Structure formats: structure tokens, C-alpha cells
Request: fold
Amino acid sequence: MARLFITLYGILFITGALFVLGIVWLPEMALKGTIRDYYERSMFGVFGLVEDRLLSQPQSEWPQTVNALKANFKSGLALMAYDQLPLDDDELSALALGKFVFTDDDDLTRFYKQIPDSDRYLMLALGKSREQREVEEVEGIVQLIGELFLQRDREEWPQILQTLGKRFKMPLKLLPLDDPSLPADRLADIKAGKVVVLGFEESRDTYYARVHGSELVFRAGPYEAPFVLRNFNTILLILFALLVALAVYLWVRPVWRELSRFDQGVTRLGAGDLNTRLIVSNGAALKTLAETFNGMARRIQKLIQSHRDLTGAVSHELRTPIARLRFRIDMLEDPLGEEDRKRHITAMRKDILELEELVSESLSYSRLDRERPELVMDTVYLQDWLQALLIETEDDYDGVKPELVTESQDSQLQVTVDSKLMGRAVKNLLRNGQRHARQRLIVSADCQQGMATIMVEDDGSGVPEKERHRIFEPFARLDTARDRESGGVGLGLAIVQQIARWHGGQAWVEDAASGGARFIISWPVS
Reply:
């Protein structure tokens, strides 16, 4: 689950980084042409007015004229030679083609243009912010236009406005101060000679400025910025939303694909296909969940298979004692002597005991195989614990009595076990050994390389090597002396193996020095 969220956070981080890079990169790459066109539209008229003033004079007077015009442009106006231009080769080439070139620094935006049919260049500097730049630009324009109007007869003004409108590419008008279309709330500023800009927030700029203290107001606009510039913030937000949506899609798609596999797998498992397993790649976000599901499916399959095997095996094992009981009941219905009757009744009691043992062991194995109990671990002295266990069980079984063999160095060996479960495992080994021992049944304990061991050794016929791998299986029967005639129901050793596994160890059988079988339980000391 942690991998799932780490992946999501990583994708979102990459998305945020790409968005930040886009903010830096997009205006430069995607808007460069749009901004250039916008600047050329807005600056074409300004440069045209200055150029008209200069071209109407000898070139020797240009420096003085530019110095006089500087007062109209607060951030700067300069006449420059080619070698004074702080531009790179690409920008110089653009100037040579008659284009505008603009540069930005921390404080100003500078515009450059070559004066037609000359080797001189005009540089006009405006404020960095858009509002400041447009106010300064309008102030300069108003001054130049005002001078232009004052130099001409009033009858020529409409023609001048029409010509200027084409140059500035926006509507231009001269209005009297009492014109009702003027903004009433800003009329005082207009009368005071301030430049008033309306519609700035909507990028539909309309400029108002009084002409040289006269009773006329110059109005320019509305001048709309290009759509991309007017809606650039909205475009960025939409772009960011699309990036986030794409990132979430890239994260959700493989997860959704894995969840679809989960749905199909759960459906198949619910329909009874116990071989269903989920296959996911190593880097899958839900790999842990898939492994958990597969473990659950294996466990369910094992439990159901164990239930089937146990049911089938118990059914098979029940048939023999039940058949014997039925046979002896039929025999008791016939006239029999007292000795034969007692013999049949004794045999019937033996069959009933076998049935009881079979049912009891089957229930115990079913419970132990179905669920792992909560182990109650105790720290005990192994030799003393075994001695007490042998004393406790000495009257439970007939036959050869077990003999505890101890080593002096092992008398203080401490181990951690679930005394109840491990005691049951040892009792099962003792019961198994007493069935087959001829003269000796030896119990011993040891500890080597951090593993504690309990050994139960008999001097019986032993276990063939080829049968040792399956003797711990439920209801396993051998074809030699360790068969049904020796007693038992075939579940005791399966329970021993299960208890050993729960302790982190295992159980196995090997040849004993006496020729019989040595059963060993081994588990970690700690």
C-alpha cells in the first residue's frame, strides 16, 4: 500500500515540476511570436510618430530632436549607432530586415527599430509592468499627437485621425471635455492632465488624455490584447488540470488493470476454481495484495483438499472396525459357548476403542491442520521437563517402558516451547515407539548449533528408507511391521510434524543404532 501512495506522490511531484518548467518555458517558446506581434502593433504608431518627426528634419538635427522628445517618454528614448546596440547577431539581423526587436531586464522593456533609409536606430524604453508601460506609451503618444494637431488647421484634424488610426490599428478620437461619453468618475483626472486607462483588467484597454491643456481629449481604443495573452492564466490552469488528470490516469490505469484481474480472480475462486492465482509484475502497486490473495487461495485450497482427504480417509478407516463389529454382532446372535461369547465381546470392545481413538485423532488433526493455535511459550529445563512427562504418562501405555538417557552437560539445557503441544508430540512418539519396541524404548535430548532436539528410539523393525518421506502424512500405512495390526490410526505422526513446524522446526525419522527407528523433533532454542 505504501508503494501505491509513493507512486502517486511521485507522479504528482513530476507533474508539478513539469508545470513549473512549463510556466518558465511556455511563455518564451509558445508566446514569443504572439508577444512580438502584440508589441509591433502597439509600438508601430509610436515609432512612426517619432520617425515622422526625425525624417522631416536633416539627420544632423536628429540628436537634438530626440533629446527634446525624451521628456515625453519617462523611461528613455535614444538615438543609437549600430556599434552601440547591445544585441546579439539574430537580433541585429532582424533589425536589418526592418523588424522590431525588444529585450527585457529587471526594470525595463527596451524596443529597437532602424530608422528607414538611415544607419541610425531608435531605442524606446518603457516600464516593466504592463500597466506602467502602457501609461508611459500613451503619455508620449499624446504629446506627439498634440503637437501634430497644434501644427495643423482644425479642418485637417479628421484626416489626421484617420491616418493615425491606420497606423496605430485602433480607433482614435478627439472629444471635447464636456462630451457625455467620457468616464464621469475619472473626468477629474482627465482634466488634471493624467492618462486614464480603462478596461485594463479585461485586456480591452481604452486610453484618455487631455491634449496640451486644451479643451480636447484624445481617446484611443479599445485595444484588445491577443486571445492567448488575455487568457494566459486560464490556459495555464487548464494545462495544469490536464497534466494532473493525465498523471492520475497514468497512476490509476495499471491499478485499475490489476483490480480487474483481482475481480476476475475472486470471481473464479468464488465459483470453485481453487487453482486461481493472480499474476502481477514485480513492480506492480498491488503486488503485496496479490501475494496475500494467492496465499489465501493456497490456504483455502489446502484446507478444502485436507478436508476432502481427511473425510475420505476417515470414511475408509471406519469401514474395518465397523465391519468387524457387524460380524461379531451377527456371531453373537448364534448360540455360542461362554468362552466364545466373552472373546467376541472383548474384540468388540477393542473395535469400539479403535473407533473412539480414530474419531478423537481425526478431530484433533482436523483442528490442528485447519488453524494455527496461539502458542503459549514457556522456558523449561528440557531434561527435567522430559522426566516429568515420562512420569506423567508411565501408566498410560502397555508394553516397553520408555527410558530417559541424559548427559550431564545437558542437565541445565533451557528451551522455549509450548509445553502442552510439544508434550502431545512427544506422547505420540512414545505411543508409536511402544507399539514397535521389542525390549528398549530410549528418550533423549540434545542441543547443537542453536537447535534443540528430542529423540525417541526403539529397537523394532525400523522404517524403510523409501517410506520415510510419507510416514508423517495423515493415515500413512507401511507394508512392513508398522501396519494396522500394530495399532494406531495413522494420524499421530502427522500431528507431530505439524507441532514441530509451528515451533519453527521439523520432524523426521532415521535408523537407530539398535536397528529400529529413531524419531527426531528439532526446533530453534530461542
Confidence is low (pLDDT under 50) at residues 479-486.
